[in-house]
Amino acid sequence: MLKIFYPAILALGLATILFSCKDDDDKGPTEGVVTGTVLALDDARSVQGVSVSAFFADNNEPTGVSTTTNADGVYSINLMPGTYYLRLAKLGFQEVPPVGVTAIPFTIVEGETVTLDYDLVASAVIDGGAISGTVSSDSEMISGALIIATDATGSSYSAVSDAEGNYTILNVPAGTYTVQAWLSGYNGQSADGTVEANSITGDIDILMTAGVSATLDGSVKFLATGNKAVDVSLIHPSTQQVIPGLSVSTEGTFTMTDIPDGEYLARASYNNDTLVVDPDFIVKFGDPVVTVSGGAVTVTQGDATSGVLDFAVTNSVLLDNPSNTATEIVPVEVSAAGLTFTWKPYSSTSDYVVELLDINGNTIWGGFDNSGDIPVKVITTTSTSITYDGPALLNGRTYRWKVYASKDDKSNGGWSLISMSEDQMGLIKIIE
C-alpha cells in the first residue's frame, strides 16, 4: 500500500512582529482595528460572550489583548501595526482554531480596519464544564502564561492568562484534572480540580516560581539553500502550543534560555522565509523531544540522545496564484468562479497534494485522511495547477490553500513527503 508520512510539523507556522502600547502623547505609529461578527454555524445566530484574544503570528505567544462579543456577536480589538491571529473560545463551541491547527494570520496597518467573521462549530464535548483561576508569583499576577489541564488519560485542554492573571479553560469534560502553567523563566506548581457537567470549577489558582535557568543549545542545517533567519520554538506535546517565551531566531547555531522543567516538542521555521522543516528529517528521526529537569537538558531524536537540538530545513514549495506576497500577510481578493490554484515546480517531485482550509483552520477540500494513507482527496502528478471543485465558498470569507510535494520512495514503503508550502502563504478572500 502506498503510504504518506504526515508529521505533526505540518500544523504549525507564522511571521514576525512587535507589539507595544500607544503613547499618551501620540508619538509613534497609531493602532489599527480588527473587527467582525461571530455566528453559530448550525443556525447562523449571533453568539454573545465569545472570548476573542489576539496572538503574535510569529511565535504563537499572546499579546495580552482580548475582548468578548456583544449581543450581536460583534467584537473589535485595537492593535499596533503587525501580524497577528485570533483565538476564539465559548462554552459549548469548538475553539477556533482547534488545538494543533494553524490559525490564519492577518496584518494590522496603521489606522486601517481588518474585518474577520467567524462561524463557530458546536463542541464535540457534550455537557462540558470549565476551569478558572489565577496565575501568580510572589503575589504578582502573571499574564501570558499557557494553562493546561490534563486528565488521567492524557487528554488536555488549555487557555492563556489575561492581563490580570485570570484564566478560564472551556469545554472540559466532567472529570478530575491536574492544572499547570507554563511560561519562560518560571516553574509552575500544579493544582488539581474536579469538573462537573455544565458548571465552572473556580479558584484553581496556580503559583509560579521565578529563577529558571536551564539552557538549550542547537543548530539548524540548511539543505540545498543558503542560510537565513529561522525561528525555533518549544511546544507542549499534548496541545501542540508554543510555550510563551520559548522561541528564538537563528541563522545557524542558537541558545534558548530560561526553560522550565518539563517535556517539550521542538519545532522550527514559522516565518515566511521560503524554508520549511525537512519532512524527511522528521520521518527519519521523529519530532525532537526536549526534557528539562533541575536545569539539566536532554534532547531525544529517534534512538539518539544528546544535550543539543539540531534541525534540518529545506526550500518550501512556492505558491504562484492566487496568494498574498511573503511580506504582506493580507489575503488577496478572488472570485470563486473558476478558482484555480497554481504553484512552482519542485525538484524531484512525483506527486503534489493540494489542500484548502477555512478561517477556523478546518480542511474543507483536499489534504490527507486521518490515517495518513493515500487516499487523499486532491492529488496531482506532474501538473502544477488545479481548479477548485469543492464545497461552495462563502463571499467575504478568508481561506488558505497549501501544496505538499512528495516522491516515490521504495525504502519508505512507497510515498513520502519532501516539502510543502508555507503556512502564511496562499491567503485568499472570496468576493463576488
TrEMBL record:
InterPro entries the record matches: Carb-bd-like_fold, FN3_sf, Ig-like_fold
Pfam assignment, any one: CarboxypepD_reg
Protein keywords: Signal
Ranges annotated as spanning the membrane: none
Keyword Signal: yes
Gene3D superfamilies: Carboxypeptidase-like, regulatory domain, Immunoglobulins
Superkingdom of the source species: Bacteria
Signal peptide boundaries: 1-22
Protein known as: Carboxypeptidase-like regulatory domain-containing protein
